[in-house]
Amino acid sequence: MSTPKKLIAAAALALPLVIALAGCAGSGTDSAAGTSDSAAEQKTVRIGVVNSGDPYWETFTEAAADEGIDVELVNFTEYTQPNPALSAGELDLNQFQHVIYLATYNVNSDDDLQPIGSTAIYPLGLYSSQYDSVKDIPEGATVAVPNDESNQARGLLVLQSAGLIELEDGGSPFSTVADVLPDSKVKVEALDASFTATSLPDVAAAIVNNDFLEDADLTADDAIAQDDPSDPAAIPYINIFAAKAEDADNPTYLKLVEIYQNTQAVLDGVVEASGGTAVLVKTPVDDLVASLTDVEDDIRANS
């Protein structure tokens, strides 16, 4: 099992790797963006991101302004920075991570940041050069998954969702090849993530990270299976807006989530920036919070 320190590094790799080099946060501001008697006194909402250069963020800030909310994007160049900045009150929100990454940060830092809205999941796909459908993969065939801890577990969950394997205790973000039950339809082999695509001529199918699709002349449309956002097992991989626990019900922050989720130009921009891989989701916040708690408990149990 992985340690929290190892998992946080692996989890970062599972995030969309689009990092714009821009200035980091300036001096801290009060994290509360509550309403005031005068609209002119409305505090600016500072949101930490790692990809502020993507055009959809400008669209989002303009849509927020149309609703009377002033948004300032604070760009970071490392995934390790936005959560501590949020905790310290230098930010009001951040949007750059999935639930597993937040859970790992909370446990390692003894913090309690909370998800207040979903954005998208960036699916991990199963590809094959021999079969057009999961149903065509024969019993006893070999399927490859990445051997890094975060993506191996996620890949195994994809295989389970596709009906190719069964995992001990239903699987978790900590599952390994050793957890594949012996009566599963296929055998599973763990390979370096950079080799799963090149293994396709030799295996029935392989989980291929998005980072390696282009080099393998693959696109997300070629996947024969991928994360199902409606599957509870995929919830830990959903990207989120995060806030301090005391701000989880802040109406201005929740309005910003609503603007993000319901502005078509923003959603189109998210998909375009991801190269077409992003799957937009509106997962209930209660489900996100429950998933966060479950993953935190798993991390503590496996520390």
Number of strands: 11
Can you tell me the residue ranges where pLDDT is under 50 for at least 5 consecutive residues? 1-40
What is the CATH topology of the largest domain? D-Maltodextrin-Binding Protein, domain 2
CATH architecture annotation of the largest domain: 3-Layer(aba) Sandwich
DSSP helix count? Answer: 8
Average of the residue pLDDT scores: 87
- The value of Rg in angstroms is 20 Å
Distance between the termini: 8 Å
Number of domains: 2
The chain-level structural class is: alpha/beta
> What characterizes the major β-sheet?
6 strands, mixed
In CATH, what is the homologous superfamily of the largest domain? Periplasmic binding protein-like II
Task: Give the helix level as a range of percent.
Answer: 25-40%
- The dominant shape is globular
Q: Report the sheet-strand fraction.
A: 15-25%
Family: Belongs to the NlpA lipoprotein family.
Pfam family, one: Lipoprotein_9
Organism: Microbacterium helvum
Signal peptide: 1-22
